[in-house]
Amino acid sequence: MAQFKIVVLPGDGIGPEVTNEAVKALKAIGKKFGHTFDMDYQLIGGVSIDKTGEALTKDVLKRCKKADAVLLGAVGDPKYDDPSVKVHPEDGLLALRKGMGLYANLRPVKVLPMLADQTNLKPDVIRGVDLMVVRELTGGLYFGKPKRRYTTSRGRRGVDTMAYSEQEIARIAKVGFELARTRRKKLMSVDKANVLETSRLWRAVVLEVAKDYPDIELEHQLVDSCAMRLIQNPKSIDVIVTENTFGDILTDEASMLAGSMGMLPSASLAGTPKEGTRIPGMYEPIHGSAPRRANQNLANPIATILSAAMLLRHSLALSKEAKAIEDAVMAVLNAGYRTYDIMSEGMKKVGTKEMGDLIAAKV
Ligand code: IPM
Ligand code: MG
């Protein structure tokens, strides 16, 4: 029995709807296992800009740093898409990742047997896929300086910088190796070492870290051919470790193996995950705010509910409780309930709330 403080950042679009359902699941866990979860609701993204002018205020960041864990819905609102806008909802997410030091982003991609017929790929190719992408989250193009747009006598220019230090590479490589150790002991390090200097450093440092992990089978793969392998033979992949932008792109691709982005959770951690150890972290679905789907009780809350399970496992060291949520999700899917994005013939179509209620009840 314990008491935990969780900052909840519902954010924009479908964010509030899906976080509601994840909070329901957590409350059900609290009831069943006798824990208390204090939820501290705060603003991030477009809703925060509307109210405060900032995508993430200092006060909210401070609360997140002090909490046991952070649960986030989604950020992004088309009204801020105009390139001349100065503050973007996404800035809040990046400030949170950087501010909490969340350098390790874990994105598990598991094809659930009952959804295998459901994707755009042949069932044979994806059945049994179980891979984990470890994405570096506080470096690379997202944060490198210089980063700006300016005007020269010959016209406008824009610059982003991809930069990595050896320390940044070594610590994320370590996360990849450690996770591989708890799984099928295969690590694929993804880079673009045939072209990029950061990637050549990446490869060199990964090889140095590999000396501490002789039991792990290490493979280097160029990012373009990794994109191909993900579709061609995803079953052969166990753990992928890669830099920020490559990981962003590859995980959207990988989500299609699981049938829908609405199924994929993520954990962003300030350390190497370890069974029984509490690592500060932030948990969010990998999908965006899907503004066109918002407020219609349509969105699939499973990605966020599974993110709450990751929260229990990694930041609260409650593995039994995490498993209880994951089992509840499986049971509800096995019973034939589907949101619109994973709907197929003969299944029972439900909305966001109903899906959340069913899962909480199963817990
Ligand atoms: C993700 C998202 C974010 C990213 C956006 C919303 C800034 O696409 O988490 O993958 O690019 O990291
Ligand atoms: Mg993305």
Major sheet details:
10 strands, mixed
Number of helices: 12
The assigned CATH architecture of the largest domain is: 3-Layer(aba) Sandwich
Strand arrangement within the widest β-sheet reads 2-1-3-12-11-4-5-10-8-9
Query: Mean of the pLDDT scores?
Result: 96
- Series of secondary-structure elements, N-terminal to C-terminal: EHEHHEHEHEEEHEHEHEHEEHHEEH
Stated plainly, the CATH topology of the largest domain is called: Isopropylmalate Dehydrogenase
CATH class of the largest domain: Alpha Beta
List ligands, each type once. Answer: 3-isopropylmalic acid, magnesium ion
Estimate the global geometry from the Cα principal axes: globular
Structural class of the secondary structure composition? alpha/beta
How far apart lie the N and C ends?
A: 17 Å
> How many domain units?
2
Strand portion, in percent?
A: 15-25%
Explain this structure to me?
With 363 residues, the chain is α/β, with parallel strands linked by helices. It folds into two domains: 1-115 and 263-363, 3-Layer(aba) Sandwich (Isopropylmalate Dehydrogenase), CATH 3.40.718.10; 137-256, 3-Layer(aba) Sandwich (Rossmann fold), CATH 3.40.50. The chain contains twelve helices and 14 strands. Strands 2-1-3-12-11-4-5-10-8-9 form a ten-stranded mixed sheet, sandwiched between helices. Helix 11 packs across helix 12 (352-362). It is globular. The chain starts with a strand and ends with a helix. The model has no long low-confidence stretch (mean pLDDT 96).
